[in-house]
Amino acid sequence: MPTKNLRLALDLHEFISQQRNGYASLQLLSRWRHEVGLKIEIEAFLKKYPHIFDIYVHPIKNNQCCKVTPKMADLIAEEDAVIRENEPAIVKWLKKLLMLSTDGTLNMHALWLIRRELGLPDDYRCSILPNHQSEFSLRSPDTLTLVTRDENLAVADVEEWRIEKGFREKLGNWQRLPYTKAYENNELHPIHNVEWLKKHIVGILHELLSLTMEKMIPLERFSHFRRPFDMEVNLRELILKHPGIFYISTKGSTQTVLLRESYSKGCLVDPNPVYNVRRKMLGLILSGCRGIDEMDGPIQLVEEHNQESSNITCKGNYNPTPISVATLRWLTSGPANGLGVHSPDRETTAPIKGGGMAPS
């Protein structure tokens, strides 16, 4: 899976950049490869991506070493610059994330694990948090606490949608269940009905994914948010029951959850600067050992990949709007809604490659 290999490449870059001279020997990298989940030999992986990694013989030590190519280094610097220019939005996303928690706290390790998905700089602990002490505090070295809730932010992405005409057939029986807002404190308003609870958790998962740069998170990362978000259910099973909202990609050894309505034909419907830079990085991954044009080669390769993967991610000419409407109606409707039509869980679906289901 190209995106997984990009994550591996970025993890290796992080390790290499921590070395004193900005390079690492292949011997050292081979000892560290299991830490990033690399299952093949380090040299074989590095040689697959010559546009990202430069392997050379050290002139003095006479051993094989590796450093990041100038092309990849420029893209990493570009991504870092975009992220740092986005500090106000990052603060907003962190506050919303903490507001999803039952007690306004999150484990710093859990945040670290999804820092790239959230668009956080690696050094956000010392570059962002100290600048906003009126909003965040470190209760302990490993716990981030929200100082004050901002009710103006307590509006989930799904609540801001607008219904278009012509999609009432998408509405489900679960619409009749009261909607418990993603940012509502369940300790003050306990949910006793199991189906209501599941509906609330689906809303939380939807909001968490909507806060990410690429509207996707590796499935196993959700386990670190089960307790703080009060999601003590089988999340994978719940996600699979809602193929109209979520899509699980099982390509490779990593299962990744995507927000379905955010993608059309393999591309993000509403791209952002971080996503655009990562598309260029993905182009270097997809180029492999081929020679590519310096300017538009990576983007062209990504477009080719998106064209090929559109039949996987979204079967046929997928239009995200109907799914968005179904999601909105199902998540936000209350008992006053008397529209008794079929459940979204029973939408006509067809299997697709890579796991999950796609609209027929």
TrEMBL record:
Segments traversing the membrane: none
Annotated PORR domain residues: 4-161, 162-289
UniProt-listed PANTHER family: PROTEIN WHAT'S THIS FACTOR 1 HOMOLOG, CHLOROPLASTIC, UBIQUITIN CARBOXYL-TERMINAL HYDROLASE FAMILY PROTEIN
Annotated region described as Disordered, given as residue ranges: 336-360
Protein name: PORR domain-containing protein
Species lineage: Eukaryota, Viridiplantae, Streptophyta, Embryophyta, Tracheophyta
GO MF, one example: RNA binding
